[in-house]
Amino acid sequence: MLKLVYYGPALSGKTTNLQVIHTLVNPECRGRLMTLDTHEDRTLFFDLLPVFFDTASGMKVKLKLYTVPGQVIHDATRRMVLAGADAVAFIADSQRNQIDNNHAAFKNLVENLRKNGVDPAEIPIAIQFNKRDLPDIQTDAEVDEFKAQSPNPVFKAIALQGLGVVETLFGLLAMTFDSLEKKHEFSNKFGIQKKEFLANIFKHLDLSVLANRPPQGLVPNAGSPPTKS
């Protein structure tokens, strides 16, 4: 089983990312998406999205995607959900008034990884700047500058429109395979190569519904809605 955790401040779009992915996955290859909402936050505990697939070598892989509650008061739950994670997608809110919350949430991620006995430098972490369609956001140039300095891959997204969601997942899974290969010689032990690993996951996603979207990260006039193709 591989466990991916979507982490970030409250209402940054963690749940939306999972909802989009769940919609794209073949119904025969997905479990039930469980969501628990409150008036304070979109997710109180976590969402669970199991995806199953077989490899050519006969290996059965169960992929589980989780989100954590973003509210500060739910730190114990975040740490619990983070335990045993193979990789993390950090979902940041692009709005300028959320910069401090993004920083605090990322700091909290690092702290909880360490409390769980995990070196933050040793676990794959992808960063997604979501809500690129809203006004008063960090500009593309600012995000690109951050990306140039970040040790982690950075993606831009409008999760509500499906933009950047699949790219973030693909990037995170590619990093996850590389990490497993480095730590456990994954390909030799289980007879699966990176290309096959990724292909077996994404063949179960219906990407045709996203065919006419603009390229990931290329949002015309950042801060205003993109034009439709």
Brief account:
This protein is α/β, with parallel strands linked by helices. The protein has helices at residues 14-24, 75-82, 99-115, 140-149, 165-184, 186-190, 194-202, and strands at 2-7, 48-54, 60-67, 87-93, 125-130, 154-156.
Keyphrases for this structure?
229 residues; disordered C terminus; 7 helices; single chain; alpha/beta; 6-stranded mixed β-sheet; Rossmann fold; 35% helix
Measured between the Cα atoms of the first and last residue, the distance is 38 Å
Query: Which class best fits the helix and strand makeup?
Result: alpha/beta
Q: From N to C, what is the helix and strand string?
A: EHEEHEHEHEHHH
- Amount of beta strand: 15-25%
**Largest pleated sheet:** 6 strands, mixed
The coarse silhouette is globular
Instruction: Name the CATH superfamily assignment.
Output: P-loop containing nucleotide triphosphate hydrolases
Q: What is the CATH topology?
A: Rossmann fold
Looking at how many chains there are and whether they match, the oligomeric state comes to: single chain
CATH class: Alpha Beta
Radius of gyration: 17 Å
Q: Which CATH architecture?
A: 3-Layer(aba) Sandwich
